[in-house]
Design goal:
The complex is a heterodimer of chains A (330) and B (431).
Chain A lengths: L1 H20 L10 E5 L10 H16 L2 E5 L6 H12 L3 E4 L5 H10 L4 E5 L9 E6 L1 H15 L4 E6 L4 H21 L4 E3 L1 E2 L4 E2 L8 H13 L4 E5 L3 H12 L3 E6 L2 H4 L7 E7 L1 H14 L7 E3 L6 E3 L6 H9 L7
Helix pairs in contact in A: 2-10, 5-6, 7-8
Chain B lengths: L1 H10 L5 H22 L8 E5 L12 E4 H21 L6 H20 L3 E4 H27 L7 H19 L7 H27 L4 H24 L14 E2 L9 H5 L1 E2 L1 H19 L1 H11 L1 H6 L4 H28 L10 H11 L4 H24 L5 H20 L17
Parallel strand pairs in B: 1-3
Antiparallel strand pairs in B: 1-2, 4-5
Classes of the chains: A alpha/beta (330), B mainly alpha (431).
Chain lengths: 330, 431
């Protein structure tokens, strides 16, 4: 029952998108790109939405067709991927590290189907392109800025689930703060993440905005005045808590939160950008051009695949990171 | 059967010699654990600071600063004393209360040890515990209403989710013709009615059409996930003004909220907390001290007898289920109007199911459910504080804490609950 309902919903949305897409350029006409989201949903103001933006840009510019299916729980990954395989999609984008196993299984079973997977760099199949992001580089900049901005000398972070694409943010953030401390002789503390133990504060899900609120309050209670929630939409709950207290800042992740959540623009210090829309768009172009898949698409500070939002004077840091003289992760 | 019924009254307040001894050793064990694990690993002279004002509070109560080691030793000593007394004489009726004290002592020792050479906001922890308990308790109260009348309601989660969405939508739309905060009240009414409406569906299916109540509840849960995700993706995500109702602000109860330490923890909350407390008390008295409650319970225990005595079983069940749904609707509105001011897909994240568990844990009683909600909320927030303090426990284990704590207390203290006898059975009127 539920899947039918989702399919119906997806079809309705796709229908409206198709109508909207009429009149675009036609380089990709007849190419069907399909996206399977993680449980955060297509409108999470975070990674699912950013990846879908790439598909939407391709719909507008290249004239492709795009569809998505939302996974409400982890059991949906496989069924959603298989639904798209049956539908004959030219490219299936699976969004997120947690879809790694389901994507690998589908890629082995369907060697002719092209896949793209966000945040996975370990799948070595000729029909799977991994989208890998050096997010620690961008998060480093955010950590540096946070250390520079904090009034209390305490900054905090928490994650959704302890998996590499989440913790890479927290690593970079921590190293950025330490770099600032070393340069300026300060002692800004980072709550919620210990890079040596690779463990810290986690909500255990990417759904419960109420958790995001409670965790942000908990961090603020311990003195943190800048918080970076790395948990998709859960961070929007933190934003509400921060806005209510009014004496703290938030650091957005994945997309520029001053644009994706403008109601919180006044408390967003900066956002750690992970431009999945660009890598998704790039792979769609590759598929249309007939370029074979299989290689990784890497986004880093150098090629603009990651970055930070807002106007900050961090060019010397970026140069150092690109040159490899500044350490951003363990 | 009859012997059991006769034996029951005499066991109230009676502690068997075995239990007395077991409890004595438990107290001694806890004392030993505090000493062995915490005291021995603490450097002498290290200081623990507990902040006694929750963040954002205007109150200015001084911090509680003490030497970690001496506090640990005092707590361990007190626990050992209680263990010795329990073994020698026994606390009798108050054994469970003393167990609570000893467990509290253990937690305090644990916190002091974790925050050694550091600080911890104790007031913030307790305040968050209360807030975390709100949606769980409201979900549980919804369950109590339905199941006391004999209708199993596992659709609380779905009702909460749907209400969370309609409350956000209603509250946002109302901004067109009302000033804040009145739009929030409008959203709240919409949320409560949504819960009631879904409950009416559940009631029709399970009371009139005598469908399997688990299936009916599951259908409502699935429907709620599907419809809210669809509307969220199709409309709320695209048109931000449909999903920006704002949040109820906190009310400081004049006078009471200025009480040092307790004031900001207990008397500075938004409408959902005070609503929960009100409903908790009302439902407790309503169920156990009024004719209304007696009738409701009789319908859940033995509908045929109730029917024979002239109580309208169907009407009573409809009333209870719809009221329960409205309670779930109130709880669901908390997620959007009371917590984060927006709706997001599956944002209730299983809190309704935990509420259902809290109801069973609390033995189908309002205050029992509240206790379970508090326990869950406390373990949840405690785990997050430990992660913030950097205690070397894997985060996966910390995330388990609320569930483990619930299981231990359920198995060790509460024991087997007694569900309403006719719970889940459709009533067939004989003609």
């Amino acid at each position: 029952m539920s899947r039918k309902l989702y399919s119906l919903g997806a079809l309705l949305i796709v229908g409206s998108l198709l109508l909207a897409a009429c009149g675009g350029s036609s380089a990709g006409e007849g190419t069907l790109v399909c996206q399977v989201t993680d449980t955060g949903g297509i409108d999470d103001a975070s990674f699912n939405q950013t990846a879908w933006n790439g598909v939407e840009q391709a719909i507008a510019n290249l004239g492709i067709e795009g569809q998505f299916l939302e996974s409400q729980e982890q059991a949906d990954y496989e069924t959603n991927i298989n639904a798209f395989i049956d539908q004959g999609c030219d490219l299936i984008i699976t969004v997120g590290f947690l879809l790694g196993d389901a994507t690998a299984a589908a890629a082995v079973a369907n060697p002719d189907q092209t896949f793209g997977i966000i945040d996975v760099n370990y799948l070595d199949f000729s029909n799977v392109t991994g989208h890998d992001f050096a997010t620690d580089q961008a998060a480093f900049l955010a950590g540096y800025i946070a250390a520079e901005t904090t009034q209390t000398g305490i900054v905090g972070t928490f994650g959704g689930i302890n998996i590499p694409p989440v913790t890479v943010f927290m690593d970079g953030f921590w190293y950025g703060v330490q770099y600032y401390n070393n340069e300026n002789g300060t002692d800004v503390q980072v709550l919620g993440w210990d890079p040596a133990a690779q463990d810290g504060l986690f909500t255990g899900n990417f759904d419960s905005l109420d958790d995001g609120r409670a965790f942000a309050e908990s961090l603020m209670d311990e003195g943190a005045d800048i918080i970076m929630p790395v948990a998709g939409p859960v961070g929007l709950g933190s934003a509400a808590a921060v806005q209510e207290r009014g004496n703290a800042w938030l650091i957005g992740v994945d997309s520029d939160w001053t644009k994706s959540a403008p109601e919180y623009a006044d408390i967003v210090l900066t956002s750690v950008l992970k431009n999945m829309d660009e890598t998704v768009y790039q792979q769609i172009e590759n598929v249309i051009a007939g370029t074979p898949s299989g290689a990784l698409i890497v986004g880093n500070l150098e090629n603009g695949g990651v970055g930070i939002a807002g106007d900050f004077d961090v060019q010397s840091l970026i140069d150092g990171i690109v040159a490899g003289t500044i350490q951003t992760a363990p | 059967m009859s012997t059991e019924a006769r034996a029951l009254p005499s066991t109230v307040g009676f502690v068997s010699p075995t239990r007395r001894k077991v409890m004595g050793f438990v107290f001694l064990g806890i004392a030993a654990a505090i000493w062995l694990i915490f005291s021995r690993t603490t450097t002498p002279g290290v200081i623990t600071t507990f902040t006694l004002n929750p963040g954002g509070s205007q109150n200015n109560f001084p911090d509680w600063v003490f030497t970690t080691l001496s506090a640990l030793n005092i707590i361990a000593g007190l626990c050992a004393l209680m263990g010795a007394y329990q073994l020698a004489r026994g606390f009798g009726k108050s054994t469970n209360m003393v167990l609570g004290l000893v467990a509290g002592g253990f937690i305090l020792a644990f916190l002091s040890w974790s925050a050694a050479d550091n600080s911890l906001n104790l007031a913030g922890l307790l305040r968050s515990t209360l807030v975390r308990a709100v949606p769980i308790t409201l979900g549980a109260l919804s369950g109590v209403l339905c199941e006391r009348a004999g209708v199993v309601n596992i659709a609380i989660e779905g009702m909460m989710l749907a209400s969370a969405m309609t409350a956000a939508l209603g509250g946002s739309l109302a901004l067109n013709w009302m000033e804040p905060p009145y739009n929030l009240w409008f959203g709240l009414v919409v949320g409560v009615l949504t819960g009631g409406l879904l409950a009416l569906v559940h009631a029709l299916l399970s009371i009139k059409y005598k469908a399997d109540q688990i299936v009916s509840g599951t259908v409502i849960n699935i429907f709620a996930i599907g419809i809210t995700s669809f509307i969220s993706a199709k409309y709320l995500a695209k048109y931000r003004y449909l999903n920006n109702p704002g949040i109820f602000s906190d009310w400081k109860i004049p006078g009471l909220s200025d009480i040092p330490f307790f004031g900001p923890i207990v008397f500075d909350h938004n409408v959902f907390f005070f609503g929960m407390v009100t409903f908790l008390i009302l439902l407790h008295f309503g169920l156990f001290f009024t004719r209304w409650g007696l009738r409701l319970r009789s319908v859940g225990e033995h509908p045929k007898v109730a029917d024979t005595l002239g109580i309208n079983v169907f009407k009573t069940r409809y009333m209870a289920v719809v009221l329960g749904g409205m309670m779930a609707g109130f709880g669901g509105s908390y997620f959007t109007l009371g917590s984060v001011g927006r709706f997001d897909e599956v944002m209730t994240a299983g809190r309704g199911f935990i509420g259902l568990a809290a109801m069973i844990f609390g033995n189908w009683k309002p205050f029992g459910s509240f206790g379970a909600g508090l326990l869950f909320g406390f373990a949840d927030m405690l785990a997050s504080k430990l992660a913030i303090l950097g205690v070397k426990i894997p985060s996966e284990f910390l995330l388990m804490a609320p569930y483990v704590a619930t299981m231990i207390v359920l198995a060790g203290v509460v024991g087997r609950g007694k569900m309403p006898a006719a719970d889940g059975q459709p009533y067939e009127k004989e003609t």
